[in-house]
Amino acid sequence: MIRIVESKIDREEVTQSVSTPESGAIVTFDGTVRNHAREKPVTHLHYEAFPEMALKELEKIRAEAMERWPLKGLAIVHRVGRMEIGESSVFIAVSSPHRKDAFEACRFAIDTLKTTVPIWKKEHYEDGEVWIEGYGQ
Amino acid sequence: MLKVRFFASLKDLVGESEMEMQLEQETSVRKIFQQLEARFPRIKSYESIMLVAVNMEYADLDTTVTPGDEVCFFPPVSGGTR
Lengths: 137, 82
Hints:
Chain A has helices spanning 11-17, 51-68, 99-116, and strands at residues 2-5, 25-32, 36-37, 40-41, 44-49, 73-79, 81-84, 88-96, 119-125, 128-132. By secondary structure, chain A is an alpha+beta fold. In chain A, a hairpin with a 2-residue loop joins strand 9 and strand 10 (128-132).
């Protein structure tokens, strides 16, 4: 399951999508909206994607992870639009026969996503808003 | 013709998310960017940090573009502290 969605992420559905009888571990990463950034209170976030290319890049991450580790499944769902404090902006689930591979692949997936998938975050504060932009590839 | 798209802060800076540019023969992304810079001088500050995609694949300023291609300019993606 590789998706960009505009509504709340169904974490249970994403987790279930990688469940197989051969899996001894499912590792998940839940990226949630934090109420502060750079010592400033954040009221909410807005994520914008280049959806067609983002899906392609997410598929590349899955393909590379499935190649590097003996996984049974890998799902990534990223939400776009407005998100409130505590809500999930991205959810990743990875299954494998043994936990070490699922942990490593999950870490790889989120770290790679943050540098290659064209999705941008705008932080909103009481007194304004700022695009948060990383450092690229 | 060439389709050019902008995202996030670059979209805000240019004031539109996409535009069409005249293109009769192949050129480089750099040439396209220089034409844009003439219209939107403030995008110059993005030259060394922005990402470029041609037809939805990462590219760079030296990549060749031909009529009908889609060129996208965007800021580095959201990053995040590990």
